[in-house]
Amino acid sequence: MKDRIKELAGSYFISVTLINIAIFATGMLFRPEQTFGYDAFLSPLIIGFLTVIPTFIMYSKRELTVRQLLFRKALQLLLDIVIVIAVIFAGNEMNRETVTAAIGVAVSVVIVFAAVHVIEWLLERRTAKQLTEQLAEYQKRNAS
Question: What is the pTM assigned to this prediction?
Fold first, then answer.
C-alpha cells in the first residue's frame, strides 16, 4: 500500500504540473482577457486530487490482461473528463461558447492523461533498466 501511495503522489504532482500548462493553454485560447484572483491557484491542486481518485479506485492487486487494463484506463479517462468538466462548468448555463470551451477542456484532459502515462512509463522504464543493470552486475560478481 505504501508503494501505491508513492505512485499516486507521483501521478498527482505530474498531473498538477500538466494541468497548470493545460489551464494556461486553454485559457489563452478561449478567454485570454479573463484574469483570476489568488484562489485560482488552488484549482489545479483540487482538479489533480479529484483526477487521482479514479486511479486509486481502479487499482487491482492482481495482474490484469491487456484488454482489462485498456478498459480500466478508458474508464478512468472518461471519469477524469466528467470530473473536470463538472468542476469547471458547474452552474454555468450551456451555450455555444460553454460547449466549445468544454470540448477544449475535454481535449486538454485527454492530452494531460496521455502525457502523465507517457511520463510514468518513461520513469518506470528507466527504473527497470537500472535494476536490470544492477542485477547483471550482481550476477557477474557472484558467478565466480
Answer: 0.81
